[in-house]
């Protein structure tokens, strides 16, 4: 007999409660708990008479299957996914509305279709005409992509069962629905049930499944974090409105490294790969101004030079303002506190603004030194030499600590024509990284923040 069961699910974090309550105890959000009905013909068989069967154990030692990956023809995507798409894998692509998810996936789809792979693009958001208009704009109208506009998962599954699909794109998972679940499309229950059915099919038939997921105001894939656990790879497509750069970032990857990024530029005719992102991010830099320092960073396996801009100005408020775009504001507070405590600088009467130029978000502690340089430069109104880069982590006692992959950072700086680098001292002593002497770059090793001041006298 079909029984109806009711549960109360938090739309923010997916926690389940037997009764309604105003506040979710798991994520502490208010008014996010919604009643969801599931028609169940006995989901939970535990406790029933039905017995399981014996599972087989095998030794850990053995040959593992190697994956033959599908190359999309878009190098940035292949790199982010760990060298191409693994058949049967499920990739969740999250991002703000309008950032370019549909554009990116249509380009991927067309790229694969042109190599004789059966590709299916199912849009639940746009009508066929809208997708065609986009394809025309991208000059991909002739690609042999199979296109449908549908939202009923039951129909989609039945159709895909009969195909030899190599790749399927669902744009977006929040628009799909399964009639068994009585809540509205986009609710946690629906998203989870639809994703579950699609993932099961992808594993069974061995196609690559892309799920597009919207992002909430908090910057998480809408509603269900649970979705992130169900899929093999989670990619975030980010970028600032008003900037043309788009970053595709792997935050989870069962088949490759995380933190890998792909850089794209949104142009008139779609997303174009950026081969040399450092040059792009530094393109609009003005030389010889105070408050600017170039940071030699690493994103994934790739070096990336970005300009860090600081503005320190007298404050009109009793509590001075600290505003950060693209970096961690707690880390800025820490760097300022260290400069105050160890270098006798005083920021208490100053507002401090920090910006990573180009709309990039960086999270490396290695940016500490470059941030400190930019802040001091703005406070003293003395510019740093324009051809210098900096990297290094700052400790609470003011010491400057070594960071990973220094050689790669320096190599990139040299490639882009920089002639000097301010770096942590341990670097020179690190025997593994002796390749340094081959560079034309002059490296200035600084052990303590107190010595930074010398650069501005
Ligand atoms: P879209 O892929 O629809 O975003 P999403 O699926 O993430 O919501 O991209 C929409 C934006 O991209 C839209 O503002 C227009 C812009 N765009 C271009 O600049 N160039 C292009 O070639 C295309 C197709 C879109
Ligand atoms: Mg879209």
Task: Say which molecules are bound, naming each kind only once.
Answer: thymidine-5'-diphosphate, magnesium ion
Helix content, binned percent: 10-25%
What structural class do the secondary elements suggest?
Answer: alpha/beta
Radius of gyration: 26 Å
Q: What is the strand tally?
A: 21
Could you write a compact summary of the structure shown?
This protein is of the alpha/beta class and 457 residues long. The chain is 24% helix and 26% strand. The site of thymidine-5'-diphosphate (TYD) has 15 residues, from α2 and α3.
Describe the structure.
- By secondary structure, the chain is an alpha/beta fold.
- Helices cover 24% and strands 26% of the residues.
- The chain is built from eleven helices and 21 strands.
- It has helices spanning 75-80, 101-113, 128-137, 153-161, 188-205, 226-230, 277-282, 329-343, 368-380, 406-415, 426-429, and strands spanning 3-10, 16-17, 33-40, 90-95, 119-123, 146-149, 167-171, 208-214, 233-238, 245-253, 261-267, 270-273, 292-299, 302-314, 322-325, 350-356, 388-390, 393-394, 400-401, 420-423, 442-445.
- A nine-stranded mixed sheet has the order 6-5-7-8-4-9-10-11-12, with helices on both faces.
- Strand 7, helix 5 (188-205) and strand 8 form a beta-alpha-beta unit.
- The protein is globular, with a radius of gyration of 26 Å.
- Mean pLDDT is 87; it is low at 41-46.
- The protein binds thymidine-5'-diphosphate (TYD) and magnesium ion (MG).
């Amino acid at each position: 007999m079909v029984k109806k069961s009711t549960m109360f699910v938090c739309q923010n974090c997916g926690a389940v409660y037997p009764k309604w309550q105003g506040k979710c105890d798991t994520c502490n959000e208010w008014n996010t708990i919604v009643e969801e009905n599931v028609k169940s013909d006995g989901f939970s068989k535990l406790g029933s008479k039905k017995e399981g069967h014996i599972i087989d154990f095998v030794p850990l030692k053995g040959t593992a299957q190697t994956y033959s990956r599908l190359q999309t023809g878009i190098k940035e995507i292949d790199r982010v996914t760990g060298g191409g798409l693994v058949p049967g894998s499920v990739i969740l692509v999250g991002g703000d509305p309008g950032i370019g998810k549909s554009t990116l996936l249509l380009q991927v789809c067309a790229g694969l279709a042109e190599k004789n792979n059966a590709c299916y693009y199912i849009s639940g958001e746009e009508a066929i005409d809208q997708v065609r208009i986009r394809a025309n704009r991208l000059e991909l109208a002739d690609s042999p992509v199979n296109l449908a506009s549908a939202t009923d998962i039951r129909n989609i599954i039945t159709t895909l069962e009969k195909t030899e699909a190599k790749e399927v794109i669902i744009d977006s998972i929040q628009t799909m629905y399964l009639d068994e679940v009585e809540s509205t499309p986009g609710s946690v229950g629906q998203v989870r049930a639809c994703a579950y059915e699609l993932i099961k099919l992808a594993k069974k038939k061995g196609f690559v499944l892309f799920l597009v997921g919207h992002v909430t105001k908090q910057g998480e894939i809408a509603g269900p974090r649970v979705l992130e656990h169900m899929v093999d790879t989670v990619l975030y497509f980010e970028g600032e409105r008003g900037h043309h750069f788009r970053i595709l970032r792997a935050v989870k990857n069962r088949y490759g490294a995380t933190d890998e990024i792909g850089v794209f530029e949104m142009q008139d005719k779609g997303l174009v790969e950026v081969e040399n992102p450092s040059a792009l991010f530094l393109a609009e830099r003005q030389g010889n101004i105070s408050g600017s320092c170039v940071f030699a960073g690493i994103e994934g396996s790739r070096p990336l030079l970005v300009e860090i801009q600081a503005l320190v100005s007298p404050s009109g408020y009793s509590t001075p303002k600290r505003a950060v775009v693209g970096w961690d504001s707690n880390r800025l507070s820490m760097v300022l506190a260290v400069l105050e405590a160890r270098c006798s600088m005083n920021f208490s009467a100053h507002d401090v603004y920090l910006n990573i130029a180009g709309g990039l978000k960086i999270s490396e502690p290695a940016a500490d030194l470059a941030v400190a340089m930019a802040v001091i430069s703005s406070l003293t109104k003395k510019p740093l030499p324009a051809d210098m880069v900096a990297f290094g982590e700052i400790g609470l006692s003011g010491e400057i600590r070594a960071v990973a992959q220094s050689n790669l950072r320096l190599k990139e700086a040299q490639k882009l024509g920089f002639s000097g680098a301010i770096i942590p001292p341990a670097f020179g002593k690190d025997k593994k990284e002796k390749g340094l002497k081959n560079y034309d770059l002059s490296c200035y090793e600084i052990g303590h923040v107190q010595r930074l001041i010398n650069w501005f006298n």
